[in-house]
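lol forgot to send this yesterday, sorry. struct tokens for the thing we talked abt
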């Protein structure tokens, strides 16, 4: 366990990032602050990796469409599309490759913010775990940095634990992109996928971004509004699979982007909720900084992300003949989970969330 006073040095080291990336509240937003020409090469490479990742889906689709322009490649493309349709690996933990998780690319990617992993408690590698990640943010950059790459040292910090970050099944229908994220150990968030991974051996664990699309609509700098009150599915899976629950809170996740005002009941909010109902995901109308300026664009602000992994919570065993946990069991475990999550937040908020506008709030 690390001392919060000592850990505060992370924030001090990142002050330069905040100075030259995120305008203050009193800034004149009509004036664009351009990046200087003499930016160090390290920071240029960090920006390059962020651009590549943010454009990864268009790049992959572009390569696939370009390949389709050549008739000689059609048999190969037809075979690949058929393979995508029949492939069940996204439901079975993905095709994880250690070399992909250890690529130097990710060192620059996580250094952009920078991202850091903090351990609160040892995890027994003979057990299985369900990590609940909060908050969702706009794109969950902290979850990607800490659980889908080794840039912040997850395997060294928690030896023997093999995490699979989970995402929507629709992502595995995108050519090429699907193979990249599976190589990072990312898998489908379906119930079948969760059960398969948790039953596939000691140490196998899943990481679920609990708040989902609904929470992303509330993601704004200085605010941590969580959608958690009615989320019991992850608790049910943990009890049925006898996996311990681990709350995870990422300070700084919501500070990476701002978004267009979408107050409940507004036309923007109604459009976003309708999109969520139809497609299973929604699109926050976000904005942050640009590649060459600090005021407008779609690149995230350079703000530290500190991901704190909390104490594991034991779940009750099902009685003989009991197939599903009772409502009382679900609510009791959820309460314990929320209490531990709040303990993490309250312990570190004055270290990593000094610029917060208000404290963590459960909005739904």
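and heres what i got for the seq, position by position
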């Amino acid at each position: 366990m690390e001392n919060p006073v000592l850990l505060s040095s992370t924030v001090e080291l990142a002050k330069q990032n905040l100075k030259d990336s995120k305008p203050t509240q009193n800034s004149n937003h009509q004036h664009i602050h351009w990046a200087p020409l003499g930016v160090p090469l390290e920071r240029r490479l960090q920006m390059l990796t962020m651009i590549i990742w943010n454009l990864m889906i268009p790049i992959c689709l572009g390569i696939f469409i370009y390949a389709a322009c050549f008739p000689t490649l059609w048999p190969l493309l037809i075979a690949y599309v058929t393979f995508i349709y029949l492939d069940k690996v996204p439901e079975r933990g993905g095709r994880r490759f250690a070399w992909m998780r250890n690529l130097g690319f990710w060192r620059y990617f996580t250094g952009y913010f920078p991202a850091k992993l903090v351990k609160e408690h040892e995890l027994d590698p003979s057990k299985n775990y369900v990590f609940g990640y909060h908050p969702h943010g706009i794109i969950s950059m902290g979850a990607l940095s800490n659980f889908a790459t080794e840039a912040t040292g997850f395997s060294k910090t928690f030896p023997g634990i093999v995490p699979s970050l989970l995402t929507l099944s629709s992502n595995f229908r995108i050519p090429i992109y699907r193979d990249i994220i599976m190589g990072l150990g990312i898998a489908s968030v379906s119930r079948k996928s969760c059960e398969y991974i948790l039953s596939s051996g000691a140490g196998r664990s899943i990481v679920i971004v609990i708040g989902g699309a609904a929470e992303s609509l509330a993601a704004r700098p200085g605010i941590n509004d969580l959608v958690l009150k009615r989320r019991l599915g992850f608790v049910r899976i943990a009890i049925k699979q006898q996996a311990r629950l681990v709350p995870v809170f990422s300070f700084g996740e919501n500070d990476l982007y701002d978004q267009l005002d979408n107050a409940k009941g507004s036309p923007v909010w109604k459009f976003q909720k309708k999109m969520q109902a139809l497609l299973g995901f929604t699109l926050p109308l976000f904005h942050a900084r640009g590649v060459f300026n600090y005021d407008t664009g779609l690149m995230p602000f350079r703000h530290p992300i500190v991901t704190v992994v909390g104490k594991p919570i034991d779940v009750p065993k099902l009685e003989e003949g009991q197939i599903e946990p009772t409502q009382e069991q679900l609510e009791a475990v959820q309460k314990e989970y929320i209490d531990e999550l709040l303990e993490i937040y309250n312990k570190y908020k004055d270290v990593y969330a000094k610029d917060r506008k208000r404290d963590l709030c459960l909005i739904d």
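The longest helix spans residues 327-352. anyway ping me if u want another try
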